[in-house]
């Protein structure tokens, strides 16, 4: 007969194994963001089902693997747009997006303005700021999740 704590130990060991695999997926997305990546391919790479990967990734990191990938792509796109030497279309394809419409929509959702507007306004925004600091202050956040403070009526 099995001891009840063995089941808990197995569950904890499985959870640690899953977390290690999730970290590998996140690292792969960080490295290969410009490549064609989909959840099925990411899941195969760590021997998980796509559904299990999506659920566990969201539980661990607060967003789906696809959302994380798009955030990394938009973050890189912001840096390329700040440089100013590439068009929005060139940036779109350089970061791995295959649809300019999807890229522009996602960029606008995360940043709060279309990439063409960002490209015009961004070059002066980080002038004089060290690149390591600029990277932190320009990191994309979900525009829809950044709530404006509510007005307090006295």
Mean pLDDT across residues:
84
Flag low-confidence runs.
143-152
- Quote the beta fraction: under 5%
Helix content: 55-70%
Shape: elongated
> How large is the radius of gyration?
20 Å
Query: From N to C, what is the helix and strand string?
Result: HHHHHHHH
Question: Helix/strand/pairing class, anyone?
Answer: mainly alpha
Q: Helical stretch count?
A: 8
How is the biggest beta sheet arranged?
A: none
Describe how the helices and strands are arranged.
Layout: H1 4-32, H2 39-45, H3 50-61, H4 65-83, H5 88-94, H6 100-111, H7 115-121, H8 131-137
Key features of this structure:
mainly alpha, 8 helices, 65% helix, elongated, single chain, disordered C terminus
3D architecture notes:
The chain is built from eight helices and no strands. It is mainly α. Helix 4 runs parallel beside helix 7.
Short overview:
The protein has helices spanning about 5-30, 40-45, 50-60, 65-85, 90-95, 100-110, 115-120, 130-135. By secondary structure, it is mostly helical. The protein is elongated, with a radius of gyration of 20 Å.
